[in-house]
Automatic annotation (TrEMBL):
It comes from the Bacteria. Residues 181-200, 389-413 are annotated as: Disordered. Residues 187-200 have a biased composition (Basic and acidic residues). This is Uncharacterized protein. It comes from Amycolatopsis ultiminotia.
Amino acid sequence: MEFPEPEEFGLGLTRKGRNGSGTGKGFAKLMVVAMRDAIELGLQDLTHFEELGLLVEKIGRDRISDITCNILKPQFIQYTQDVCRDLAVSTEQFPVKHASFDSHRMRWCTERLSLPKNPFTNGPILLIPSRFLRELPALDSTDWWNFVEPDLRMDLNLSLNQHINKSEVIRRARSNTDLVRQWSSTSEERPADPYPVDRDPVGLHNWQARTREFANEHPIDISTIATKDDLLRFVEKIITEFKHQIEEEGLWSLLYNDDTGHPKRETSIQLLFKGVVQSYCRAHGIGLDREVELGRGPVDFIVSKDSRVRVLLEIKKMSNGKFWNGLENQLVSYMESAQCSSGWFLAVRFGDTKNQRERTAKLPARTSHAAHQTGFVIRSTWVDARRKDSASNLTEKTEGVQPVNFDPEFEDE
C-alpha cells in the first residue's frame, strides 16, 4: 500500500519543484484503515479509489494519481519502450522503483531498465498516451455534490453555491454510502474527456514555445544587475515589455481559451508571463521562481539575483473576488515571510464591468496606501487584455476594445 511519487512521469500537484509527497508507510496504514471503515459503512468492495476519497480525508486527486501511476507503471514502461523503439529514441539504463510487483513475496521491485533520459532531472522518463491526461479527475467531491439528489440536498441544507470543506463532504458521504456507489456507477457511463494537448486551449502545455518567440523578437537591454535598485529597474522593464506585448503586439489573444473564447485562468496567465520573461532573466543571470511556498501560501513569482536581492510579484485578474486582498494582504504577508522589502502587483483586465473600471481607477492610490502602511516598496500596474479590433479599425487609443459580457464580477478561479 505504499505508492511513492512516480517522478518519472512529471505529473502531479506540487508547489515547488517537480516532486510530490506520494504515500509512505504512515499513509499506507491510514489507507488500510480507510478501506476497513468503507467496508463497515457498507461498501463491500472498492470499484474506484475516488470512493475512498469521499470517505476519508487526505485522499485526493494527487494521491489517486500517484496510486494509479504506480499500479500501471509496468504497462507504461512497456509503452515507453515501444515508442522509443518505433521512433529510434535513444535510451539509457536507469533504476526504476515500483517497476514490477512480486505477488509471491508481496512487495514492489526495483529494476534497471532502458528508458529515455530527462535532461532536466537526469532521471528516466515514462510516457503516457495523451488520451489518459486530463486537468482534474473524472470523480471528485464536487462532482459527487452535483450528483446528489435535489431532495437530499434540501434535507442536508446544502446550497450548490456554498463552499463545503472536505471534512463536511466526508461526513455527509459516510452517512450516504449508497449514493456514493450509485454516483461512481453512473459516472462510468460518461465518455472519457481527455485534455486536448495538441490544441492546448487553456494554455497549460504550449505556452513556453509560443512566448519564447515574442521574447526573442523584443530583447531587453540593461546594464549589469548588482543592487536592489538595479533589480527593481529590471523587473519594471520586463513588466513594461509584457504589458506592451499584450496591449500592442497581439499577445492578448493567448490569454483567451481557444474553445470557449473566455479569459484563461490566472494559472495560465502566470505561465504566459513566465514564458515571456524567462529568457530575459536567463540572459542577465536572474532567477525566476514560480509559486514558491513562503509559509503563508505560495507567492506567484520571486525574481532574484541572490538571497539578498529579491522582488516578489503577484498576478491577479481584475475580476477576481479576492483582488484587493491580493494586493493589501497576500503580497504584504509574502513579503514579510520572505523578509523582502520590494514587491510588484500586476493586474490583468479582461472586461468593462463597473467593478473592473473602479479597480483600475483605484489601483494607484491603494498601492500607495499599502506601501505607506507597511514601509515596503510596493508598485503596481495593470495590463489591458480586453479584446482588440484590428489596427485598421482603430481611430484613437481608447477605441477598438470590445467589452466581454461573460467576465463575472466575482471570484472566477
